Amino acid sequence: MGSDRYVYLDDDAGVDGGVDLRALTDRGSDHGSDHGSDRDTRPDRRGPLSGLYYDDPDDIFVGGLPVERRRMGLDEELADGLTARHFLERFDPRLANRPDLDPDGVATRIADQTREQPRLAQLAGQERCVQRVYAAFGGGAFHGPERHEGSLDDTDHLLRLVERQDPAQFDEARREKGIDAFKKGNGKHVCAESSTSIADAVAYAVALARGVDHPKVRAALEARHDPPKRPYYVHVPIVDLLGENGHEFCGGYQLVGEDPREAIKQRDMWAKAGWKGKPRDDMCPPQTEPITTFRDGVIEFRIGHNAARDSYELISMFPRPRKEAPRGE
Amino acid sequence: MTAMRHYWLDDQDAPFRTLLCVVGTYCHPEAGPDAYGDLIRLARSRPDDPEMRLFKDELRRVLTGDTEGLHPDAIFTAACYGDGTDEAFTRRLWRQLYPGEPVPVP
What was the ipTM of the complex prediction? Predict the structure, then answer.
């Protein structure tokens, strides 16, 4: 993947007050701020990035409406005068069916996890109470942070959504062939109609710490282990875990299309052709858009088997934007 | 995209709740790499399990067109399949879960 990630606002879409997403992703280009002149030199090839230009993953343009997100401080009050730090410090790994941690072993565990998953390197600068939550899930079945946490930027989301490239896959050649980081062999990565994250390491840890203590999630994790059965997935309101403004920590992109079934089917055909290096000139590229708000959304918890298949564990956690109730409900 | 919340998670009486919860848990792209295999094993090895019996009955009803009370976007919202249509998805599901049994038709 190229080092340049060009970012600009889609003025054709009539969007005002946009944000240069490079500032959010810390992935600037060498082309300065004159995005318009860059764009003018490019062929008029509208692509999957929602009315923006797209040629290939080496030269990707990202833009559109800014996604709501901000950073969570440890002293941020979340509920009833209780802070993020409070919830992180009272986190008990055993609620998640994970072994308790020696506090002195947290840094070592994080270092070990980072060797396996470089995306977690950003945790090195976090306080121990934050690291401890991530460390508790190290070596387990949980792969939420690698795909749904703050280290993902807009480009990661879009490559996942459009090309089905797994953000957790750090072998570049395998990632560009759509190979999943955690499937055996050359199993392909799959992606739903959206790619989302809690775009802040502290907020993600808080959602995890509070989530495993939520009655719905606890009921799932405490269910009698009965493989191959697994508990149903669980939705918990974002506000219950991250506070009244918790939606501001969430971001992501979704596919666009009149028929969502057809949008996913077409996206899959597009991605598969890309993995195989087939020409895509006559294909209709997937269209995407930023998810503009997660207000009133939920956090989804996925539960599966631990490595020994003798208890249930979380396998993923990610935000979903608010959806309307069906008519008549 | 489809704008619908997963109402079947909280509504114990939602029509086709078992079908929707099962396909959401085992077939959705976020279900994890082993989930679909778990469902195949479950369907084939525990035909008399109450949940699996209900699931199979609801799947059969969908395949035969008896979908009263089922929101037209619910199966897709739950499973987020790449098959293109509910019919293609549910037919594939039946064929893979119950390979010795003909796919029910309307």
Answer: 0.97
